[in-house]
UniProtKB/TrEMBL annotation, chains A, B:
<dbReference type="GO" id="GO:0008360">
    <property type="term" value="P:regulation of cell shape"/>
</dbReference>
<dbReference type="GO" id="GO:0008881">
    <property type="term" value="F:glutamate racemase activity"/>
</dbReference>
<feature type="active site" description="Proton donor/acceptor">
    <location>
        <position position="73"/>
    </location>
</feature>
<keyword id="KW-0573">Peptidoglycan synthesis</keyword>
<dbReference type="InterPro" id="IPR018187">
    <property type="entry name" value="Asp/Glu_racemase_AS_1"/>
</dbReference>
<dbReference type="Pfam" id="PF01177">
    <property type="entry name" value="Asp_Glu_race"/>
</dbReference>
<protein>
    <recommendedName>
        <fullName>Glutamate racemase</fullName>
        <ecNumber>5.1.1.3</ecNumber>
    </recommendedName>
</protein>
<dbReference type="GO" id="GO:0071555">
    <property type="term" value="P:cell wall organization"/>
</dbReference>
<comment type="function">
    <text>Provides the (R)-glutamate required for cell wall biosynthesis.</text>
</comment>
<dbReference type="GO" id="GO:0009252">
    <property type="term" value="P:peptidoglycan biosynthetic process"/>
</dbReference>
<feature type="binding site">
    <location>
        <begin position="42"/>
        <end position="43"/>
    </location>
    <ligand>
        <name>substrate</name>
    </ligand>
</feature>
<dbReference type="InterPro" id="IPR001920">
    <property type="entry name" value="Asp/Glu_race"/>
</dbReference>
<dbReference type="InterPro" id="IPR004391">
    <property type="entry name" value="Glu_race"/>
</dbReference>
<dbReference type="InterPro" id="IPR015942">
    <property type="entry name" value="Asp/Glu/hydantoin_racemase"/>
</dbReference>
<feature type="binding site">
    <location>
        <begin position="185"/>
        <end position="186"/>
    </location>
    <ligand>
        <name>substrate</name>
    </ligand>
</feature>
<keyword id="KW-0413">Isomerase</keyword>
<comment type="similarity">
    <text>Belongs to the aspartate/glutamate racemases family.</text>
</comment>
Length: 267, 267
């Protein structure tokens, strides 16, 4: 048994959808969340920039004595996970492997779609890992850079988001996929709009749920679960103040947590 | 006469539309451009973050021995110009004052619209400066955060940008404005779409042209113009590599300049 917190970082506030899933399966755990709102988004930046920022984020979380770290950001998970594991001596989990496993369970016709930021798509991480598991799989990817600012604007289901979804997803639907991975933590906020665009025949896969389950299994196996009574403590840190935190926090966690602002360039 | 370069910085690549105007009116000048592509956008970040980043950008440009600095970014001009002038001993120009002067020349009915990022609109800089010049002016502002990612996606005139423009600008048109300031360096890239949405009766004001003229007048007055023969040298620096630079550079400057990547956190 280990009462130290679980650390979670994301490029911004989208990772709160991952915190939501952790709280569901492991309510007793203490959680320290860091959102890099001063440098968001990561999805349009280079692998080098994303890796540099991710290392600073991990150093900050380690200063909070976390027992494990979840990289909630798909772009950082796709581009920087190996570099983080080589650099730091703490268990680090990404969202890509759990997302891949969930997609493999979901598909019947072996045709999987993946949408994400330009950085996630460019990395090829989803295709590589899906095909490593089953070489018969066909993977079709599409970068949807506008989905993040649409979600942050609160335009999750209006004429603009529907037109954008149509433009991004039309070709993907035509490939005959039966499962679509939401490969960015912001995309679950657009779930209804994306679902209506691709139709009911295509199942939407959210890696956050599978990630929470995977981390729980690891903690259990290594006797690191927090078995204290009561609901765990939550701490939220951002690198810049933003109105979006309040909006997404209320939407994802149904509670008005107060974030603390820190200078991430110090780490 | 002074052959030292003019320094220009922007949050990203939008400021190349300002470089274009400088090259038009002062072709002999050497120019050093810095685009903070590692931390773009500024428009959704706090005043504190924007000021901190802007100071680092000025320190970098000073290391290139510039004779004057243009803050091409409206968000930084609106939020951080005073702090920069207090900190550094070099002539520093923003884009807001020239934009205001151009808008005052343009309007006949004394009703001016201003569109910009959330950071620019929140600062109130345009309203304050317009009303300081003429207290009878009525100013109507609207933040259009999605216009930057739309321009960067290359969706400058399609169904998505038209729907977004309609949503953002409908109320502004209804106020009866006869002039609209494009208060963000990215917005001239969407000029056609914005113009069609607001109609021909509303004149679009681009602060970049007036900024270039203002800087030229200052350099002339202080005997700092570069009177060498031939076209000035251009140097482009970014804090992260990005495909967007190539696209916007070709569109704005009609020349494939090669940017150099630097670590802005060192400054």
């Amino acid at each position: 048994m280990d009462t130290r917190p679980i650390g979670v970082f994301d490029s911004g506030v989208g990772g709160l959808t991952v915190v939501k899933q952790i709280m569901k399966v492991m309510p007793h755990e203490n959680i320290v969340y860091f959102g890099d709102t001063a440098r968001v988004p990561y999805g349009t930046k280079s692998k080098e920039a994303v890796t540099k920022y991710s290392k600073q984020n991990v150093r900050f979380l380690l200063s909070k004595e976390v027992k494990a770290i979840i990289v909630a950001c798909n772009t950082a998970s796709s581009n920087s996970l190996d570099a983080l594991r080589e650099t730091f001596d703490v268990p680090i989990f990404g969202v890509v492997v759990p997302g891949v496993e969930e997609a493999l369970r979901s598909t019947k016709n072996k045709k999987i779609g993946v949408i994400g930021t330009p950085g996630t798509v460019r990395s090829g991480a989803y295709e590589r890992m899906i095909c490593e598991q089953d070489s018969e799989m066909q993977v079709f990817t599409k970068a949807c850079p506008l989905f993040v600012p649409l979600a942050e604007e609160g335009w999750t289901d209006n004429e603009v988001s529907r037109q954008a979804a149509k433009r991004y997803l039309e070709e993907l639907v035509a490939t005959g996929i039966d499962s679509l991975v939401l490969g960015c933590t912001h995309y679950p906020l657009l779930k209804r709009c994306i679902g209506q665009t691709v139709g009911e025949a295509i199942k939407l896969v959210d890696p956050a749920k599978a990630t929470a389950r995977r981390v729980m299994a690891f903690l259990k196996e290594h006797d690191l679960l927090n078995e204290s009574e009561g609901v765990g403590e939550k701490q939220f840190y951002l690198s810049d103040s933003t109105d979006t935190f309040r909006f997404v926090c209320q939407k994802a966690l149904k509670h008005p947590y107060e974030p603390e602002i820190i200078d991430i360039e110090m780490y």
